[in-house]
Amino acid sequence: xxxxxxxxxxxxxxxxxxxxxxxxxxxxxxxxxxxxxxxxxxxxxxxxxxxxxxxxxxxxxxxxxxxxxxxxxxxxxxxxxxxxxxxxxxxxxxxxxxxxxxxxxxxxxxxxxxxxxxxxxxxxxxxxxxxxxxxxxxxxxxxxxxxxxxxxxxxxxxxxxxxxxxxxxxxxxxxxxxxxxxxxxxxxxxxxxxxxxxxxxxxxxxxxxxxxxxxxxxxxxxxxxxxxxxxxxxxxxxxxxxxxxxxxxxxxxxxxxxxxxxxxxxxxxxxxxxxxxxxxxxxxxxxxxxxxxxxxxxxxxxxxxxxxxxxxxxxxxxxxxxxxxxxxxxxxxxxxxxxxxxxxxxxxxxxxxxxxxxxx
Length: 360
Ligand SMILES: [Zn+2]
Ligand SMILES: [Zn+2]
What we know:
single chain; alpha/beta; Rossmann fold; 2 domains; 11 helices; binds zinc ion
């Protein structure tokens, strides 16, 4: 099969033929249909997220089951599935407590060899998926079956960006009807936070981004106000739009420690800031202690939108099918696997919300 291989930090991915490993008894083989290019893939390439090369990258994808191991249950050849970049085993301490986004198997699935390069070098797959490849051999706990006719590229985005963003609003923050929401960073995940806030019934949704395309898309997808940081301090701009109090909720969706502090400063007394973007692992967040304690502001971490994928993937699919959630407008371009590095260039240049690779 052909796959895009991460071979060195800051270098281009190399598309080449690799040999998949034989699937184990609890593995499935998925014919990948589409994969989004997510900022976290770039974070592996540039070293923000520590993962040693070589490896197959990609963690936001969908496909069709081509083979199931002897011990696989509930899945069969021909099923449409979305990859879950955090597995949901269903039986560990966290999964049993409705926190499958903290599943204890998160790191073990990343360690498995999933393919071999021509020279014999073993290749693991990012998050146990490796969606930048024509097929994925992955544990059954890493896929969720969905019954739908939605286009492949829209299902792919549910694998990471859509679930993370919509889930951050609905699950992590539990945005209330009539509330005010700030979203700092309006890439794929940020646009999904905006839509989650809209679905929750927020009255005012303030989208903040330096890129005009992203502000314009945000206004189309549910934001009521767009703020350009180039026009001045974002905290002051948010206060001007919220009666001087600050917003009920603020989401940081970039992964910059200083902007997590800014999100905290954007919320009112008793408000909730949510850190969604993934910063460098060694970064520290600094918070002013007076508003933290004496005005009861809250800062919440958020991984995978606090989603329970076996519950939430089908729910998100239905929201798209009924027109409540718009993923189509988040797909800026579809490209072949060979153009993957152009997709990363477009992301770095801020030219796209999401590029999606079509594989079959
Ligand atoms: Zn992602
Ligand atoms: Zn688990």
